[in-house]
Amino acid sequence: MSEIDLFDVATKAPGPAGELPLTADMLLNRPSGDLFGLSQNAGMGWDPSRVNGREFLVLSTLGGLRGEDGKPIALGYHTGHWEVGLLVRECAEELSRIGAIPFAGFVSDPCDGRTQGTPGMFDSLPYRNDAAVVLRRLIRSLPTRRGVIGVATCDKGLPAMMMALAAMRDLPCEIVPGGVTLPPEHGEDAAKIQSIGARFAHGVISLKEAAEAGCRACATPGGGCQFFGTAATAQAVAEALGLTVPHAALAPSGQPIWLDVATRTAKALNHLDESGIKGRDILTDRSIENAMLVHAACGGSTNLLIHIPAIAHAAGLRRPTVVDWIRVNREVPRIVDVLPNGPNDHPTVRLYLAGGVPEVMLHLRRMGVLHTDCLTVNGKTIDENLDEWESSERRRRLRQVLEDKDGVDPDDVISPPDRAKAKGLTSTISFPIGNLAPEGSVIKATSIDPSVVDPDGVYRKRGPAKVFTTERDAIAAIKDGSIVAGDVIVLACRGPLGTGMEETYQLTSALKWLPFGKEVALITDARFSGISTGACIGHVGPEALAGGPIGKVLDGDTIEIVIDRLNFTASVNVVGCSDFESRSMRSDLIADRGLPDDTRLWAALVTASGGLWGGCVYDTDSILGMLAPKAI
């Protein structure tokens, strides 16, 4: 750039041509903000004659800066939000085509995979609440919007978006799930690849093999990971809640059928606005239970035990309890065979092609457990949508694609209950209690390696405790051989008060892919990634730093775990130690020294609001009640 170009600074501009379509009534009765908003719209280049149209807001978790050719100008945090700008554009263009005025806003989200084993994980779960607050503020900051579309994909961004939209009870609101990435033709998926460090340390994989597999794991640039972890489960839950158009969850990112979800959603939002259907008409106690039913049938991530109550709380509904989760998982066996639960480990794109959430709901309807009268965002009930789906060309053709391209029977991915039972699929989650977890804990029972489960369907384990208070020390012990077959790893001080309730997939992935890993159990007051498998018990309550007995365990204590995957009972206890309950707490219990102050504040607020089992939310009335001075 020459010096003349650089310093030839304009100080005035002609402004947009034309005039605003104002009326005397508008000038006399509309707020000044409404009128100034019209000036802003024209200033940004919108046709001044069209600024009085109906306004809709498209919010997303877009991250990075993508060139028109798809190449990165600035990288995003993860593939899940890398391409969602294309969905935002498709929504906006469709809204414009039908005569509306689209607005767009963004609140980007982090990557749990990128922060595994790092202090970044201390911000993961707290981010969800913060993002939901900001998203709600953005919605309210556009007072003239008539409805909202939320475009999001991954572990915390999509739950945050659902929480934000759930709170907008008097607006029509819809979700566009950001879809999934494809698996590589040759190589490892994004779950297994996260264990290359531990496998290399044990000589299971070479340096070259690790480098090549790591390069190919994310085979396409957009979408959530290829497994049914928290991101994929959240997409399925959004659809089960009725917040998406039918067959929206898990579409392959970047493909025409993925963009079609956005087109259909924009049309549906326009219909909701014209019909007067609001968020409160769609999100109900019965739709919350539908989400729990789909979660159980799919073998979903245990993180949704935190997110679904949070969505219910935002919507002003009753938060489901452990008792509700136990009842649902007793009623509904897992019928979906998808990574990470097996046995055949189909990637998520196959679940989509096999019929996705509508196909799962068809089976639930036949079982008589689904609330089919619930309304969805296309203005139809679940019953009406399933009737259309069952006989649709879309269903027939996509299931045929799965058979033709991958040679997979769709009914092997989403199986009728009898076939699922014959394959050994069992109910998804159990809730071990005992002297180690008097308030309860969680295990994805369906993901325990079948080879360590007894013929009667019960996982039984007794082993010596090896106790750690940091994830760093625990993974080091796995890598250096200090952890051996038969051990029970106890990881304390990693709950909300210790780390913001970090996710410990670094440990569970290592155990899954090491030859002896299935013979090791893990117990922690932290949480797990949705891709975690094995005998991994998390969400132990109370957490160590809240006085929980997990903070009393010593190296060498004998721990007994019993998980009955058929009768749905589970326990976790220290045995052979008569003084365990009267034992003093360990002297090394401390919150992580790197815990940010804002995460400490988050932990205090959610502890005052029902804690982990209440969804880790901010309950304003509970917090204000604790802050208010006591009556004299």
How many extended strands?
A: 13
What about the largest sheet? 7 strands, mixed
Quick check: average pLDDT? 93
Strand order of the largest sheet: 7-11-10-9-8-12-13
Pick out the low-confidence regions: none
Q: What is the count of helical runs?
A: 26
Q: Report the principal-axis shape.
A: globular
Kindly, what is the distance between the CA atoms of the first and last residues, rounded to a whole number of angstroms?
73 Å
Oligomer: single chain
| Structural class by helix and strand composition | alpha/beta
Helicity range:
25-40%
Percent of residues in beta strands?
5-15%
> Roughly how many Å is the radius of gyration?
25 Å
Outline:
The chain is an alpha/beta fold. The protein has 26 helices and 13 strands.
Topology:
Blueprint: H1 3-7, H2 24-29, H3 32-43, E1 55-60, E2 65-66, E3 72-74, H4 84-97, E4 101-106, H5 112-115, H6 124-140, E5 145-152, H7 157-166, E6 173-177, H8 196-201, H9 207-216, H10 230-240, H11 256-275, H12 279-282, H13 285-298, H14 304-314, H15 322-331, H16 348-353, H17 356-367, H18 382-390, H19 393-406, H20 410-413, H21 417-422, E7 440-443, E8 458-468, H22 471-480, E9 488-491, H23 496-499, H24 505-513, E10 521-524, E11 536-541, E12 558-564, E13 569-575, H25 597-607, H26 620-627
Parallel strand pairs: 1-4, 1-5, 5-6, 8-9, 9-10, 10-11
Antiparallel strand pairs: 2-3, 7-11, 8-12, 12-13
